[in-house]
Amino acid sequence: MSKKILIPILVLFVLTVASIAGYTVYQYPFRIGYAPEQPINFSHKIHAGDNNIPCQFCHLYARRSIVAGIPSVQTCYNCHKLVTGTKNPEEVKKVLGYWDRKQPIPWIKVFDLPDFVHFSHKRHVAKGKTCQECHGPIETMDRVERITFFNMGWCVNCHRKNGADDDCWVCHK
Amino acid sequence: MEFKFRRRDFLKGLLSGGAVALGGCSPEKTEKVIPYVVPPDDYIPGVSKWYNSVCRECPAGCGAMVRQREGRVLKVEGNPKNPVNEGALCVRGQASLQGLYNPDRFAQPYARNQAGKMEKISWEDGINMLAQKIKQLSTEGKIGNAMFLSGHVTGARAKLIDTCSSLLGMKKRATYEAFSYESIKTAGDLCFGRKEVPFFVLEKADYLLNFGADLFETWISPVRYSKDFSRMRQNDGYYKKSVHVEPRHSLTAAGADEWVSIRPGTEVFMALGIGHELLKNGKAKLSAEESAGLNELLAAYTPEKVAADTDVPAPTIKRIAKELGEAESGLVLGPGMAGGGKNSVDTWVAVYLLNHILGGINQTILFGLGESIGQTDSYGDIQELTARMKRQEVPLLMVHETNPAYSMPGSAEFKKAIDQVPFVVSFSTFPDETTEFADLILPDHTWMERWDDFESRKGAHGLLQPVMDPVTDTRNFGDVLIEVCLKILGGPNEKLSSKTYYDYLLESWKGIHAASGETKSFDGFWEGALRRGGYFAAAQPENASFTKEIVSYKFMDAGLKGSANEFYFYVYPSGRYFDGRSADRQWLQEIPDPITVAVWDSWAEIHPQTAAKLGVKRGDVLKVRAGKSEIKVPAYIYEGVRPDMVAVQAGQGHEALGRYAMNVGVNAVSILPQDKEPKSGALPWLSTLVSLEKTGEKHLLVTLDGSLDDDNRGIYQTVTKAELEHGGDHGKGHHAEKDYQMYAPHEHPTYQWAMAVDLNKCIGCGACSAACYAENNLPVVGKKECGVGREMAWIRIERYFTKKDGTFRAGFVPMMCQQCHNAPCESVCPAYATYHNNEGLNVQVYNRCVGTRYCSNNCPYKVRRFNWYTYKWDNPLEQQLNPDISVRQMGIMEKCTFCVQRIREGKDRAKDEGRLAGEGDIQPACAQTCPVNAITFGNLKDPKSEVFKKSKDPRGYRVLEVINVQPAVTYLKRIT
Prior knowledge:
Chain A has 9 helices and 1 strand, in the order αααααβαααα.
């Protein structure tokens, strides 16, 4: 094969592979179904589903702040110093390990908004929105998975449907 | 929820794929959320907390309120509960954040090694080294000459230094402040037998005659006096007059109703001349006997003679004397640092005498309320110390919160002297000029990181509390001193029983509690003080009586005689750099000087006549020579100075103090001759004549004003009292035809945010601009970029020179986005990035902006700012960024938002309480910090709101009203 044909083919091949790889990478933290492995196999199903613990028992800032808050290790420990866990005792041990080492748990963020967006959990909770309306049926998930694509259209549609303000400066900061 | 593979996403993927392929296959990392192990008490992420403290940027000691979120300090505002500043803060106070996060502040202790280089050491080593040194000097019997040299400290800190000094057998500490008002103190001593800085009650006065005190910038307590000045002028409907007598048209002169230009150093004679007139007119509120004595003293100072001395026309002197005599409670003030010549005590004695004649002593001038700045040593005392140091009589000098190597003139030879001190310890947070000579550096916390207290004036005990963890490895000076002391003494004793400075502070406050007579327990008292930001007792003034011996007083002139080719050298302090200590704050370098609007520089102000004589144009470098010393500085030409003088601002020209302060401008104080005021020992800033020489060099002097005046476009509008009394001014400005509309008007169902700026109150200090920099993540672009008009200030103070009936004046117009109803920027945006929202705001959506800059081209107010680069913050300055606002990047247009994040917050709070945001819920950063409350913000839909009333004020006008853009900002004309 002559170089004249080989080089364009090679270039095209590299570009195609790079594009597919790039697309995958681009989508990685943003895609639907994103469910990264967490440092501890924490199950929302056991806590919020089977045991009916209210969301705001652990995510205690949701009604008071823009952020809901990831529970501190102390919050976990307060129960798990007594509750050893029947289904995953070794995961509970991991939690106690973090507590003993006085080390925070490096959770991986599943739901994220860009830094230029102002979003207040407080306002939505105060309006009576349930957590599931945005985050999905978390109480059924063993590992948290993103089921919503948090883009602008999704936010605006809901705001319009509920008669909320849809001015740009409500969210853009 | 469905998700389709869309064309746009494919293209994005294709592009980022390419980028990844080129960038070495590094996919974006997943983000982590790290919670606390144990969260601090009452911690709520995403919610800011405000802690009360005391601003320590200058000796005034205003109350500060520090905003902290997620462990970081984000903003400083005035503490409304502190009686000194009542919620306002000056430009320096706002910029204190850049001291906290200064990239050049010391990261840990340093010690000089064998080779003479500074070397990082641990805190333990540093403390041991100091303890060792003191022990060694003790054994050698030299400790009696070791001493502290501190800036103005009060309260527990001062007590601790003095206790430790005496326990260790050291000499009593010396205190040096560059601005320490010795002439006021000495004149007080001569007139009343009270050597103190009294409290001047401006708001009680109905006529102010000011011989040069820079009320708005550095003088004693600038926020306090700005506030009081404004209150004085606004009392009973804007009719109180103030006259400013100064050779230079300073910021305070611009704020006054009348500026009288006087020959430098002759203020004393004008004061005496006015006294003469008052007595002659029978306006003296004195006994007949006393009047007779004074008559004799003042007989020689006829207006005609005084006019010859001072260059102020006799009719002006007579008129001012008449006005002052007719006022119910006139107040007279003397010069500050600038204009303080070798006769500044005499000037102040004359000023006190005038006040006495007016019956103002114990009425508008109160003694016994002691401004604590009165406690510092005089410049003469420090000169004496310098001499001792030079003779190698000081074996150990511990420098704390002061920088004499910079702020004393070169001729005082402080640098030579400190070089002779065998061991110098510096507790400075920043690498300043004095610290250059240190053998050991034990850096102190900034005021936002430490426990401390400060007594700004008698009874006003401010309390400082740490608002965040120290940014670098610094330690509280108090803790270090206690540790060193205990190490040497072997343990606590009854004089020093505390092991930490916090305990020492508590002990000290137990004393304040006992003296306060409060019935509640100490814990309750302490908690209350923490919450309030201090304990503020109302101190009672003490009666002062004027000495009868004044009749034999000899008033001197300033002793400034020279040849015709010499000029008065008029050094004046800067409201932005104070004595030079805050020149390392980028914001203060980039916020322009209020009068010249110059940035990042020093300049020599000369009169156009002088410029013509010398053949210089703006930016031509002049050689200013005083004796053997000289500085080279570019010329700035305007009519705000007399033809026989040259004025240079102090505070620049640092040889140390970090990257932002170094190599910027010149240090004007450095060429002052070795001299002192004979009676008080003060450094006379007006003490020399200089020769001016054109060097032929050119210097890029960047000023941010487009032109000197407003070209009669009615941007800065004034109205006379007479016009106002006769029902407004007609025929001024051009009004647009209001009904003419091309588009349907916007609807504002609930809120219509609007602003009113009262130009009669605005003093042009620039605090609003600094507050905006802090609140809105504005980048600093540097001198070169400023020079091509790329500064990023969202609110700027526009300065316009006016000349009416031969009088030269400067006027100020704070200019920010006018949030126009018919905004010209909106209709030209091709990306719909800017539009008018239902709350009357002109929205800028950064994500939509593609950077065409059409909007900026079409903006008649030139308030839109374009990001020419992705600006960087030097680490750790980025920690100050406000998380409620996006940080913009290259190619984005931005502008004032009326602090939309604060509007959002105010509405949020109101919603929590189930109501609409009303009056007082929302204050933009600029309005919050304004010392004179010139800016009013509110909802125009609420007819009871202040802003609504002001929008209908007869003085109200809109800038460039004729183009019918219908701004939401109403300006109220200045009354002249």
